[in-house]
Specification:
This protein is of the alpha/beta class. The chain has a single domain, classed as Alpha-Beta Barrel (TIM Barrel), CATH 3.20.20.70. 33% of the residues lie in helices and 15% in strands. The protein has 12 helices and 13 strands. It has a 13-stranded mixed beta sheet with strand order 7-13-12-11-1-2-3-4-5-6-10-9-8. Helix 3 packs parallel to helix 5.
Length: 365
Amino acid sequence: MTDSFGRTIDYLRISVTDRCNFRCVYCMPEEGADIAPKDWILRYEEIATIVRVAAALGIRKVRLTGGEPLVRKDIVKLVQMVAQTPGIIEISMTTNGFLLSRYARELKEAGLSRVNISLDTLNPERFVRIARRGSLQQVLEGIAAAQQVGLSPVKLNMVVMRAFNDDEVADFARLTLQHPYHVRFIELMPINWYDGSEGGEFLQQRFWSRIFAHTGEPSFQLVQLRQASRGMLSASEMRRLFVPVDEMRQRIEQEVAPLQPAEVVTNGPARTFRLPGAQGTVGFISQVTNDFCANCNRLRLTADGFLRPCLMADGEVDLRTPLREGKGEEEIRRLFLYTVAHKPERHYLAEGIKPVSRGMSQLGG
């Protein structure tokens, strides 16, 4: 599949649940998170049907996300179903790692290629402050288990926040000296930062109406599943915590060593470097200050069955309803092609257009 800007779309991220066993301060409220009713969540057979259609259209890579995918019952079964789909050459998973030591070997045997593990601190006390659930030690055991069974390369994703963990970027970079990890530093993204003072919802609806009005087909929707704000960082707090990747890189080079460009074959969002003599790599994901939209190759499927062409802009297409109405694979194929044809050229953060309808746990990381 090729979109209207010449980008080949061959990567599908699938959220399998909006539930999580952590409550990270930038992602979910500590209590009272808005989650979809269970009967809204796609069944594994429905996901397998969507993947089969997507693969026939040219999707080659799939990543399972959440919420936390390992909290969903029988997740190994889904991995096997996706891995056995003709045309799919790689299946990966984003996880917080807390349950990974339990499932790592089964996941590998089912066909999982690799894992991305979210880890924002190496300090046990800070871990409790940021994740508010689980334990750092159990996550570290999950990382070791993934490495041991060959779910590699193991990627560690650190969301950098000022006064929370920005003083640890050099420590994370040093991990690559002794381990073949791909450590990636991520700018805090404005997902659901809307706090009611900027007219964000109106701007979103007007924006998507303008983009898709000419199609004559109201397939794109603005799905409102607003996260409660109780115990979650507010929009203004997140803006104060924002650290640009240029600052992260400068800190690493001052405290450790100059970074050298690394030749890593990927069309993902990270710009990748290596410390001298390191086994692993250091990457920066700068979706806010230096986006990768020109090379974006992905679509996202939410846990409740909506196909989304852009993480950083609201608007998505309902696949669950036609699936459950028995309209068949040809209709799903049509909706995929429709979504790809209207994938935005870029996000519009600079114009004040921010995603406000869903939080990251609802979209899939």
